[in-house]
Amino acid sequence: MTTMRDALESAMHHANPDAAMSALTEQGYAVASRDTMSQAIHDVYCGIMADHEHPNDKDREQAAAILASLARQAG
Prior knowledge:
Elements: H1 4-11, H2 17-26, H3 34-46, H4 57-74
Helix pairs in contact: 1-2, 3-4
């Protein structure tokens, strides 16, 4: 199993950002921001039955909590 640090170091050797992102994805990693994580949470947990079209405050709060947890795990 490749660690996140190893995957990032490997991806950094690519000539352009698209190739680096592809390398991370191929190794099972994703780069997320609060906005992209909020959208992912909305897509997965709210889905097509949602009473709202875009991520709401709860989605954004959950995204921030998940990203903080991931940062702690990586640190």
